[in-house]
Amino acid sequence: MLAIYMTIDRFDRLILNELQRNGRVSNQELADAISLSPSPCLRRTRALEESGLIDGYVALLNARKLGLTLMAFIQISMDRHTPDRFAHFEQAVERCPEVLECHLITGQSADYLLKVIVKDMDAYQQFLLQTLTRIDGVSGVHSSFVMKSPVRKTALPLDL
């Protein structure tokens, strides 16, 4: 896969940092925050969107207030390491609303690491037994439950 990187300058970084903090900021507020006039600020923001550097805008919801109180990281081992087996697994977990993230990993005995959120342990057990372990190719499951999340970020470090 060919990686294509866009060169961004100081104003682009400022725009991206501000939008990561508040995706609902108006163009005028954004322009004021980065000391740029509104017209070039809007042009730059649209260019960042069109380039794909900005994937989209979302609302971050409070899971606990929605009754989603149990988060788990699940290591999944596959029975065969073939592209079709991996593709089938990835398509299956993509359809699961409980799965927040799915990562193909290395350096562990597992092949995948999932981040899952559910209402409670009963809901987790149902997800595990009725969905996850029924996906063809899943040969092992190891769950770790989140007790506390002292660091939780969505912003990417742009100043590195």
TrEMBL record:
The organism's taxonomic lineage, starting at the top: Bacteria, Pseudomonadati, Pseudomonadota, Gammaproteobacteria, Cellvibrionales
Q: Does the keyword Transferase apply?
A: no
Q: Which one of the record's GO molecular function terms can you name?
A: sequence-specific DNA binding
User: What's the short name of a Pfam family annotated to this entry?
Assistant: AsnC_trans_reg
State what protein this is by name: Transcriptional regulator, AsnC family
CDD domains linked: HTH_ARSR (cd00090)
SUPFAM superfamilies, per the entry = Dimeric alpha+beta barrel, Winged helix' DNA-binding domain
Note the PANTHER family from the entry: LEUCINE-RESPONSIVE REGULATORY PROTEIN (PTHR30154), TRANSCRIPTIONAL REGULATOR AZLB (PTHR30154:SF34)
